[in-house]
Write a structure and sequence with these properties.
The chain contains 10 helices and 6 strands. The protein has helices at residues 22-35, 43-49, 54-61, 67-86, 98-107, 120-129, 152-161, 175-183, 198-204, 216-225, and strands spanning 9-12, 111-116, 138-141, 168-172, 187-191, 209-210. The chain has a 6-stranded parallel beta sheet with strand order 3-2-1-4-5-6, with helices on both faces. Helix 1 packs across helix 4 (67-86) and helix 3 (54-61) packs across helix 4.
């Protein structure tokens, strides 16, 4: 009688990892600034906060305000994004090689998940745009768990799938993803095509950084052997 292999789970970030959503994020933030009579922010400043819960992101971008103001600004951003989506003015293309990488991991028996700073009502339309909504065994969002870098989204993903922490890995483009993984005692792989630099991802604790999706499966398997 052979022993079955343990379940393994690859948890992907969304924005900056699966999809390139910076155009839409920056546009919604520009509209939020306009609503509040604030000058537009530098693109790099906006890119730096992608992945955080919106209320925390607003606090980083607009220091010195009351928490209630950050909450209101976050809701304003969400409203602008919803209007953009209804107008079909949201651009969230998949990064090259995403589908092939998911196919490879799934074909090798891996479960797939998502952990994102998006709300669920934002994540589902993004996945549906690319027919990915049924590819993932677990979807974790900042509206249903504490946001990155807190480990709760990873912990909930593990609980939902029945996977042990040592059999899971996080794939993401920001230090928030890597710190979330470290806080959950889970390994991580960084991707260089997103919103934080490769050196930052390695310094945060990523096992390695890949530069295109064709490198991902091998990097994941190598990390799991360590």
């Amino acid at each position: 009688m052979t022993r079955e292999s343990p379940l393994q789970l690859a948890i992907f970030d969304c924005d900056g990892t699966l999809v390139d959503s910076q155009y839409s994020i920056i546009k919604a933030m520009d509209l939020t600034c306009k609503t509040y009579g604030i000058d537009k922010l530098q693109r790099d400043s906006i890119r730096r906060i992608v992945g955080l819960p919106l209320e925390i992101a607003m606090a980083k971008l607009f220091e010195g305000q009351a928490q209630s103001t950050y909450n209101d600004m976050a809701e304003c951003y969400r409203n602008h994004f919803r209007i953009m989506r209804r107008a079909e003015d949201v651009e969230e293309p998949l990064f090259p090689g995403v589908l092939e990488a998911l196919d490879k991991l799934e074909g090798d028996g891996w479960l797939l998940g998502v952990a994102t700073g998006k709300a669920m009502r934002g994540l589902i339309p993004t996945l549906e745009t690319h027919n990915l909504e049924k590819r993932f065994s677990t979807l974790q969002t900042a509206c249903r768990a504490r946001g990155k870098p807190h480990p709760e989204m990873v912990e909930k993903a593990l609980a939902e799938t029945g996977v042990d922490a040592h059999n899971a890995i996080v794939i993401g483009d920001t230090t928030y993803d890597i710190h979330m993984a470290c806080n959950a005692n889970v390994k991580s792989i960084g991707v260089s095509w997103g919103y934080h630099d490769a050196d930052e991802l390695l310094a945060a604790g990523a096992k390695s950084v890949v530069h295109e999706y064709s490198e991902l499966a091998e990097a994941v398997y190598k990390a799991m052997e360590e």
